[in-house]
Amino acid sequence: MIGGIYFGPPGWHLPDIPPVTMDPRRDPPPHPADRTQLCDYLAAADLGQTHPQFPSLANQTASVSGRKIKKIMISALSIIPESRIGAICAKINPAEILAGMDLITGIFSSPTTVLAYERIDQRELRPLLKLARSRCRLLPLVSRYPAAHPAILARIVAGCRSADPLEEGILTVDLLTCLLLGRSLLHGTLCSHRPVQIFMAGVSPRVVWAKIGSSVRDVFLQAGIDPGAMQCIANGLLTGREIDPATAKVDSALETLALHLRPEPETPVDCIRCGWCVQTCPVAINPAALYAAQCLHDGVAQANPRDAMACIDCGLCTYICPSRLPLAACIEDMRNRVEFNLVSVAGDSSV
Ligand code: SF4
Ligand code: SF4
User: Fold this and answer.
1) From CA 77, how far away is CA 345, in angstroms rounded?
2) Range of the domain at 216
3) Which of 211, 234, 260 lies at the terminal end of a domain, its last residue?
4) Is the CB–ligand 1 distance for residue 285 below 6 Å?
5) In angstroms, rounded to a whole number, what is the distance separating the alpha carbons of residues 27 and 29?
6) pTM tops 0.90, yes or no
7) 232 beta partners
8) Is residue 214, in this structure, part of any structural domain at all?
9) Residue 159 belongs to a domain with what CATH number?
10) Confidence of residue 30 (pLDDT cuts 50, 70, 90)
């Protein structure tokens, strides 16, 4: 978990995005007409998870089976503060996005479709919003972070209290999924590439189409940047992970790459009980209490591990903590222990 550095304001100027030739499909299947055919189509088109937090459309379709979908949330938001993925998709091709949206809304025949976007992206999204207005409710938000997390977005859109919106009949689809699906439908191509944003201090942000499965180092070279020995963080400085460009591969959910000089290791000090982590947590849990519990051998005595399961791993508590405590990483560790049954949850036999 990395915190502390942003590369410019969230409304950075989008560069021109060169066109890409997607790999062709040998036997393009017919347009899907129901959920089963949609699952087959998505698999044949190689369309996987394209948002670091939203589950893939294929997984959601398979897990809802015949259940009724009450709402479709289409999101142009990014979980990564510096990312402008919604604006990038709209700039690439609004018609392809609409083709994907129309197929999804037709197959799930939900009574309501909501398109959530951030106001700061409004200029780039305008052509898409104009076309989408007659198809869905438009929901402008003032901040994409952490509203882009499916659990938080579902709470804003539908008052959903569950950590899994699908349990309450809400399907969540990101704009890139709509774009790649639409492109595949209109042109019979595989979803072989995805846009990746590249950030480096002192250099204006770049956007390149990266081939899925290719080397991350090649993506940097494609953008005219040599990563050298700099630290490379994939998918956001708050929530991302350090990767080695020489060995890491592009996957379908790789949204951003950031390069910067390796920071000095931080030296945490004791909690000063300022309460900032509690105030900032979007799911209203107490990171300081969980951290204190995790530092004890018996872990759970001082805190409810269910709280750890509610954490959406947004990284805000770590970012804001003046004592530089690794709160989110610690809570993630507790979550893993709960998932692997190393910590018992009182009164819940299912965990
Ligand atoms: S990472 Fe921290 S702020 Fe974010 S949800 Fe988890 S506990 Fe709350
Ligand atoms: S923000 Fe850090 S110092 Fe402040 S209460 Fe939370 S853990 Fe303690």
Assistant:
1) 34
2) 193-260
3) 260
4) yes
5) 6
6) no
7) 243, 259
8) yes
9) 3.40.50.11540
10) confident
Peptide bond just before 150 cis, omega within 30 deg: no
Is the beta carbon of 38 within 6 A of some atom in ligand 1?
Answer: no
Q: Are residues 40 and 133 in the same domain?
A: yes
66 lies in the same domain as 157: yes
For ligand 2, atom 8, the nearest C-alpha belongs to 271
Tokens 């990171």 appear where? 287
Q: What integer pLDDT is reported at residue 1 of this predicted model?
A: 36
Residue 345 within any structural domain of the chain: no
Whether ligand 2 lies within 6 angstroms of the CB of 277 is answered as yes
Q: Among 276, 294, 319, which residue has the most ligand 2 atoms within 8 Å of its CB, making it the best to mutate?
A: 276
What is the CA(289)–ligand 1 centre distance, in A? 12
- Establish whether residue 275 lines the binding site of ligand 2, counting it when its CB lies within 6 angstroms of any ligand atom: yes
Pull the structure tokens for residue 73: 């949330």
Q: What is the pLDDT of residues 270-300, one digit of tens each?
A: 999 999 999 999 888 999 998 888 877 555 5
The verdict on the CB of residue 268 being under 6 Å from ligand 2 is no
What single string gives the DSSP state of each residue in 37-75?
HHHHHHHHTT----SSSSPPHHHHHHHHTTPPP-EEEEE
Q: What is the pLDDT of residue 297?
A: 58
Single out the residue of 57, 174, 76 nearest to residue 121, CA to CA. 76
In a domain, 20, yes or no: no
